[in-house]
Amino acid sequence: MLGVALVPFFGWAGAVVRYLPLLCTYWTLLYFDLVPRRRRLSHPALSCWLLRAVVRYFNYHVIVEDPSSLQPATPYIGAQSPHGIYPIATICGAPFNSAVFPGQDAYCLAASALQLQPFLWQWMECLGGRPISAAAIKEVVDQGDVCCLVPGGIAEMFMLDSSNRTEQILIRRGFVREALKNDVDIVPIYHFNHTQTFSYVLPPYLNAWLSVACRKTGLPGCFLIGRWGLFVPHKVDMFTVVGRPIPVRERIRQMRDRKTRGGKEGKIPGTEEVRSRECSVVEPTVEEIEAIVAEYKEALRRIYYNFRPVGSKRELIMIDNRGSPGSTVVGGNKEEQEGKSDGCERSLDR
Fold it and tell me: What segments bear the compositional bias annotation Basic and acidic residues (predicted)?
């Protein structure tokens, strides 16, 4: 894959043909689940020369909004935005996670389709990459580590504004539901200048068609171009802001208290622990999810307008996928066009 990245854009087809036998062999092994998997990230990989070079290339750094709000040895779900055409900031942030979350490992859950890219996926596994699923989130949280994901997913790859007037974020609810079910707080994370690293090759109307195809198949398929007409990202100053945690655990405790007070006054001895376990696995209600989503939107808005680069006039647009396609939150004002809700999604959003 590194060889493919160094060929000019219009010569990529020849490189793919040369690598085709290797790709077919890898995909066959992947289909039969014969590709070795890493259970833990590799700490030496977090300090390798290649990762350090990428960090220096973007002059990348991390800002923590309120360091005292992040409790040590506490599992979190880190919601990263925006996705960008390619999530480079997620890779750049890997060596900084130990400083932001001391004593914990941070695992980033990505679309399972990325496993189709040999070598790149193995490198991402060393940095903490895992295929995204509800079970994977629970596994990371249960071992006391930090679970990072990009809620916008593949769909957000096609939401870049070519005029550079707006920054568009897709608001989803799957990660909020999993945070409620696993009783962990959500840490909002924003990557600044992340959407400036690559540009589209195809016209916007073709990108819209390709976005639909990718959502149907689950495969990333954005045609991009970077510096000098290569697959090399544009050199921009990129940084990440880690916000204050959203108190999801407090919400779930309030829910349990309401359920306890709503029951009968008489208690059978020994049933309190059973009731607690039942509450911990209860499916969150739409009202509970929407309350956390509202706090998440407000946190993104606060982080964006407090930390955006000096001189930047790009407005933040949050597109809500819960109702109609026109449901948005624009800039610092809540201008929501409420559509009919299709209910709470039953599968984890990518």
Answer: 333-350
